[in-house]
Design a protein that fits this description.
This protein is α+β, with helices and mostly antiparallel strands and 66 residues long. 14% of the residues lie in helices and 30% in strands. It is built from 1 helix and 6 strands, in the order E-E-E-E-H-E-E. The chain has a two-stranded antiparallel sheet with strand order 1-2. It has a two-stranded antiparallel sheet with strand order 3-4. It has a two-stranded antiparallel sheet with strand order 5-6.
């Protein structure tokens, strides 16, 4: 599964493999180091994606998943 996270500093969206969950990554645009949420923290997003049969979900913080 792929997931899209938003950099907390520059708001750039980064497409990642689900293997990046619960790890720290460096934003390729602004070079800040930040933590990607763990898969357990994505329960609402994953259930919403399953409910619509795929697609993209954007949470209240602007993070998009799909």
């Amino acid at each position: 599964m792929k997931m899209c996270v938003k950099c907390p500093r520059c708001n750039d969206r980064i497409l990642l493999s689900s293997d990046a969950a619960d790890r720290r990554i460096t934003c390729p645009k602004c070079l800040i180091l930040f933590k990607v949420p763990a898969m357990e923290e994505l329960g609402e997003a994953l259930s919403a994606i399953d409910g619509i049969g795929g697609g993209v979900f954007v949470d209240g913080k602007g993070n998009c998943f799909g």
